[in-house]
């Protein structure tokens, strides 16, 4: 009987579900291990073969840890709020909940087919009110807390208001938007509205005016990674910079703790470095420059106060709050036009375009506090409002962007550090001697920086300061399909809903787009107010809200009294292994760490970090195909002939291309536009071009895992995806090798069963070589699993099978069935049951490598005569080279070649070769 993977996989998937094989509970008698995948957004396209890569890797590890005796938590759910479902709703009128439910069912069907060991009883969906109740609850806790920098923890806002009432800001060291100073009398004299305005400066969840990426067509704010080249990634609509009142989370309060916490995490060095750079800690000086003819002082932050004598102009961001005030009448139109241009470019684009120089004069002048000279103030988009103070002191001799700006506008360039030719380029020196710098002249840079820190503070010009590139997270989106804010407004004062009124659920609406006035969709909802008539917040929370604590909810998903119980959290603690893409390094992973640290401060969780070990899987890339349309026609020319025509390259569905040859009839039927297509062929065939690209529906290079499973089975898919290459590297999908993996599984099956389907396993004692092969494989596969080197583990199984030959002995095949179970669980279950076991292979004991079987008592030497291999012979490992020399020349095979002659010498390399020289 051949390996019938369809029946086997269907049987065991139903069995696992019926018996609750993967359900897990708190069990203090066993060590825990928590394996987690970054949960997917259920898109309408379903899974392609690239999506399961990380899931398969984590599933192998989860099954392996269970076999090693661990109580393994391995849950799955859906990041179900998202813009795609809402856009579909706007276009079709279908409620996003309907779309999401259908897409989720499709994902579940596909995931089940691959045979994952998920505990589906713990499933969470971010759009489920029972789940987002706890997202709203966490937001309210942040709204009700401030961050005490002295104690390095969050504290209730009531403690801050009590301190203000007693002594104002004196003695308060709080994370805040702006430094404030007021007395207790002032605080006590303010009305509720003014006090709340002040508290928004300190709350960990707060409202403020901020610059955002605004997409009028989508009617919402977009994150930086949702914008490319000034257009929305979703739909390609224009995006502009706009100042709006938004909810934010004070992520910056935890910047230092997030930096320090990286030292204790088993993450890759590259990922840690990405987060360090994103947090961007720098030690510098806050300096205030007087503005000529004004009481204002322009605040800047610099890490190089030693270069202040080289400052020849100032630059402020187009969004700086003083732009209008600093702009003179004759420059106003030019400044306003420039700001309008800037609105069309995202911050990311402004940072990236280092060669582009643009700016405009304000007409105002600052005064260099050390030289006393007036220096012009410009507006330019290479300065960002959100980093530092939104203003810089420009030192063109020693900064490349300042140098390019100065050359473009004909401004002075004054070198203050020896070396370099500032006529040719800036000299970005971090060491050297100071020149043209009065009392700093002759000092080394490091010494001069320290001196200037002291001098700035002594003269009252500013102070030493630690700054971070990290910014507070914008936490509101002007869309419908997201978590409602548990906030209502009384006289324009933001008020929190009581906990017993959570969750605040999304109201039904019919039109999911923004209103004609540009208000969010929730403005359309009838009665979107409290029972008393106070209006609710109209924005909803962003995509990262629901994913910031989902790992905690998995620990205790049915608890309606708390996000997670103390008992469950004390047992599961945090995620031992987290698997997902590195693209989340500066988004989800930062926000989840912040969220967890905040809950840790509140005593809600027992670990300060959410994810102990993190593994980033690479991307499975698609192999795209192209056809070449002759411009202005519906005629398509084959690859080898395209140079003879002016052509347009078009992606074509890889499923109608076979070995780069296009199926012409299938192409004509593919899209209405191509129904009448004509072809210019080479050798009677249409040859397509190809490229390795991201697997994407838009590139028509998506391979559906359902099709692979239909042809080869889930176990083949699992092992093949691991066999493609190192887990962390990108690799192209290539079906050429999948047949080899499938043949391996069929060969493995035939070790256990005869042609008639009867169990062929015997109780005969294994040979020394068979034991050595088994235990060598156990050691190799175990080491590879621990190191996430799954591709070499699959190779080790193949080598093992080759070495075992036709071995059918129970003492070899039983542990081998357990060893391969994490990789090919359906096949392993079937073999385990056939071997007479009545419980799942998941509860078997993982085989142990016994070193004694790896020690050889004999070695089969290849024997050469005059350098040519003539025969092989086994000798005891304990024999000395002299004993082997004496023995080998007496062998009949050797005598044949010696033909009565005495060898000149016999070379023996122990454990390697023998060479007889005649």
Briefly summarize what is shown.
This protein has 918 residues and is an alpha+beta fold. It is globular and about 110 Å long.
Helical content stands at 25-40%
Structural class, by secondary structure, is alpha+beta
Shape: globular
- Binned strand content: 15-25%
Total count of helical runs of at least 4 residues: 29
Report the strand count.
33
Sheet with the most strands? 7 strands, mixed
Low-confidence runs: none
Distance between the termini: 55 Å
Question: Nearest-angstrom radius of gyration?
Answer: 35 Å
- The overall pLDDT, averaged over residues, is 94
Topology:
Elements (H helix, E strand, L loop, with lengths): L4 H15 L12 E6 L14 H16 L3 E3 L9 H10 L3 H19 L14 H15 L1 E4 L4 E4 H11 L16 H6 L2 H8 L5 E11 L4 E3 L4 E2 L2 E2 L7 E10 L5 H7 L7 H11 L1 E11 L5 E6 L10 E4 L6 H4 L5 H11 L4 H6 L7 E8 L6 E6 L11 E4 L5 H10 L35 H14 L3 E7 L4 E2 L12 E4 L2 E4 L46 H4 L3 H4 L12 H7 L4 E4 L7 H14 L12 E3 L3 E11 L4 E3 L9 E6 L4 E2 L2 E2 L1 H7 L7 E3 L8 E6 L10 H8 L1 H10 L7 E2 L5 H15 L15 H19 L3 H15 L5 H11 L4 H10 L23 E8 L2 E9 L4 H8 L3 H7 L6 E5 L3 E5 L1
Parallel strand pairs: 1-2, 1-20, 12-14, 20-21, 22-29, 23-27, 30-33
Antiparallel strand pairs: 3-4, 5-6, 5-9, 7-8, 9-17, 10-11, 10-13, 10-16, 12-15, 13-14, 18-19, 22-23, 22-24, 22-28, 25-26, 30-31, 32-33
Helix pairs in contact: 1-27, 3-4, 21-22, 22-23, 22-25, 24-25, 24-26, 26-27
